[in-house]
Design goal:
alpha+beta, Endonuclease, Chain A, Beta-Lactamase, 3 domains, 16 helices, 48% helix, elongated
């Protein structure tokens, strides 16, 4: 069957487990994947294989530090493992394990699959428990050792002769095949989880939905007590946090998990490395800590967050294929984060004016419709201010368009400083702006308009002097009952201010009774009746 490299490593460990868990006095021969430096856990495991009266031979790359690492292990009462460096470079791609014992025999071998570019994401794996096939493999390896490692040929031949496989225990075979089936089932579940996350990324641009789906799928696929994700927001606000907790009794508390994730996130940001805690780790208070694994999230070398899994089983260890899943998902999340950012930018560009940063005409209509519906539902007033810079055409003609652009930008900055967060400033067209003030009645709108007029008088543009503006005010529902009517009334008030000398505030002259407004707008009438 075809398997990913992480799955193949897990298969090797399952074959080794048969020897260790059943304390077989077997001959174990392995060709190890080329690694410059091996982890302490792997060194300890290989050392355990060499104990119990077993004979072990490890084929390794010439740069492998396994031999020097095993020298620190005491093999006084056992036979030290024999390290057989590969004689040619091609042998570094070998990956096999042979187990020979009177009660059990097994062979697991990998067949490399390389693409046209020389990369190999998945390899084919074959295994057998047939004694005859295992014996043939031993004969081949004996001939190879005689040719490539003559100094070790005698020891190797003696080990082969004393461990000739005779029969295979059905119980041991069932044990390893059950583990293999379980591994493949888990692997299928993880692949499904990754596919579901990828589908969510393709089908949605809502980052919240994608990130919650991510922690749910990863948590369920790895069967952990908790999966948590912390990712930086695109805006300059607090980071986003998402979590999954298994539906089983656990001592984990969400506040504790998220607090610890904040600390570890800072650590992985500094080290830019995977963080793993297992093997009975204890805290400063001497209490056992839950096993966890944290993978940093990067997009184009920019740190954007961390993905964590944590379990309440103190004996839990994190396998290579589990870490691979976390890394794969972390890469997917980084891509989704970037897509969301691009979407937000495009959306912002579509709804805002590039020069001033205010909302544009299209966005104004959307905002005004929404605010009018809210005002009708809550039976609250709303004010609309139409503002126009005085003598703006003359300013452009005399001082140039750069000065005109500077005036518009400073005007927009004035709005951001003077208006509330709930207010909306939009560039209606040219030098005309529309300001939406929710929950503002006529008196309040006039106060805001006059304050803005006075503030604009203080704005100075180089080569031009101080600015001035005329402002028209209309309110809902006193002056108008619809978006179009409200815009018309505010615009009429603006031109009334201009006709009467500019640099002043004028209010709409319309004065329709609320009952008339309601009767002329059935939808508004229904909204207000519903709110009551």
């Amino acid at each position: 069957m075809r398997c990913a490299h992480s799955t193949i490593a897990q298969l090797h460990r399952y074959f080794e487990d048969v020897v260790l868990e059943n304390n077989l006095s077997a001959l174990v021969i392995e060709s190890l994947a080329p690694i410059g430096k091996r982890s302490p856990r792997e060194i300890a495991r290989l050392g355990d294989l060499a104990r119990g009266g077993r004979r072990t031979f490890f084929f390794t790359g010439r740069q492998d530090d396994l031999g020097s690492s095993l020298e620190g292990i005491d093999f006084t009462d056992n036979i030290a493992p024999v390290i057989l460096p590969h004689s040619v470079r091609e042998q570094a791609n070998e990956n096999f394990v042979v187990i020979a014992d009177a009660r059990f025999s097994a062979l697991l071998a990998t067949i490399r699959n390389e693409n046209a570019d020389g990369n190999s994401g998945e390899d084919e794996v074959v295994w057998t428990f047939e004694p005859d096939i295992v014996f043939s493999a031993l004969e081949y390896l004996l001939a190879r050792v005689r040719a490539e490692h003559p100094d070790d040929a005698s020891a190797f031949g003696s080990a082969v002769r004393t461990a000739v496989p005779k029969a295979t225990s059905l119980q041991l075979t069932l044990s390893v095949t059950t583990k293999l089936a379980h591994l493949l089932q888990e692997q299928a579940g993880r692949e499904i989880a990754v596919n579901r996350i990828a589908t969510a990324i393709r089908e949605s641009l809502e980052l919240d939905v994608i990130l919650q789906k991510t922690v749910d799928e990863v948590g369920a696929a790895l069967n952990v007590a908790c999966c948590a994700l912390r990712i930086n927001s695109h805006a300059n606000v607090d980071a986003l946090n998402y979590s999954y907790f298994a539906e089983r009794e656990t001592t984990l508390q969400k506040t504790d998990v998220m607090s610890e994730l904040d600390e570890i996130t800072a650590l992985v940001e500094a080290t830019q490395q995977l963080y793993i805690r297992e093997d009975g780790a204890t805290g400063n208070d001497g209490q056992a800590e839950n096993p966890l694994a944290v993978v940093p999230l990067f997009f184009q070398d920019r740190f954007i967050g961390a993905l964590e899994v944590i379990d309440d089983d103190a004996a839990r260890t994190w396998q290579d294929n589990e870490i691979l899943l976390l890394r794969t998902v972390a890469n997917q999340v980084a891509v989704a984060w970037n897509h969301s950012d691009l979407y937000s930018q495009l959306k912002q560009q579509a709804l805002t004016d590039a020069l001033t940063g205010c909302f544009n005409r299209r966005s104004f209509e959307m905002h005004l419709d929404r605010e009018l519906q809210m005002s009708a539902r809550l039976d609250q007033p709303l004010a609309l201010l139409m503002l126009d810079l005085d003598q703006f055409k003359q300013l452009n003609d005399t001082a140039g368009h750069d000065a005109g652009d500077s005036a518009l930008r400073k005007l927009a900055d004035c709005f951001r400083e003077e208006l509330r967060a709930v207010d909306t400033s939009t560039r209606f067209g040219g030098d005309e702006f529309a300001l939406i003030l929710p929950q503002a009645d006529t008196e309040g709108a006039m106060i805001v308009a006059e304050r803005l007029r006075q503030r604009i008088e203080q704005i100075e543009v180089a080569g031009v002097g101080h600015l001035a503006a005329s402002i028209g005010v209309a309110t809902f529902p006193l002056h108008a009952s619809s978006r179009a009517a409200l815009v018309t009334e505010a615009d009429r008030a603006l031109y009334h201010a201009k006709r009467n000398g500019r640099n002043r505030v004028s209010i709409s002259q319309a004065n329709t009774a609320p009952s008339d407004l309601i009767s002329s707008n059935p939808n508004l009438s229904e909204a207000i009746e519903h709110s009551m």
